[in-house]
Amino acid sequence: MTPAVVEELIKKAGEAASAARAPYSGFKVGAAVLSADGRIFTGCNIENASLTLSVCAEKVALLKAISEGALGLKAIVVTSRNGQQCFPCGGCRQLLFEFAPEIKVILPARNSVKTYTIRELLPEPFVKE
Ligand code: THU
Fold first, then answer.
1. Given CA atoms 28, 60, 5, 19 in this order, what sign does their dihedral have?
2. What is the pLDDT, as a whole number, of residue 45?
3. Which terminus of the chain is more solvent-facing, meaning fewer CB atoms within 10 Å of its CB: N or C?
């Protein structure tokens, strides 16, 4: 992945946050997933009055990619606008591990960009075996 591709993912994730529906938390999140064939799938968080039906930005982006048949997901950027890294929640880590065990998780903040493997973020995933 070139620095230009990473920049593109960061830009797309930031733009995706504009569509977030976050009236309850006020916390808008955007995500962008890169597939092996170079496609980019974006997502934002979408909250619901029930709260439990709310979905995270990375889950939306990941499931869009999966549902479009994207394979070999290479990277995901998750971003919020508070200037700090937006670490994926535990449930999203489990989802990412299941569908994209090789994915790099790229988390930009105001002054730095941190990159993790999904294994680093979820060292002991639940697996069906
Ligand atoms: N959220 C995400 O979309 N992704 C994360 O990685 C962390 C949290 C959303 C869920 C909820 O809509 C809001 O941020 C506050 O928790």
1. negative
2. 98
3. C
Ligand 1 nearest atom to the CA of residue 28, by list position: 14
The CATH homologous superfamily to which domain 3-121 belongs is Cytidine Deaminase, domain 2 (3.40.140.10)
Question: 55 CB under 6 A from ligand 1?
Answer: no
Helix (H, G, I), strand (E, B) or coil at 92: helix
pLDDT, averaged per 10 consecutive residues of the chain (129 residues), comes to: 96 98 98 97 98 98 97 97 94 97 97 96 93
Q: Which ligand 1 atom is the nearest neighbour of the CA of 46?
A: 12
**pLDDT (0 to 100) of residue 110:** 93
Residues 43 and 16 sit within 8 Å (Cβ to Cβ): yes
CB distance 88 to ligand 1 below 6 Å? yes
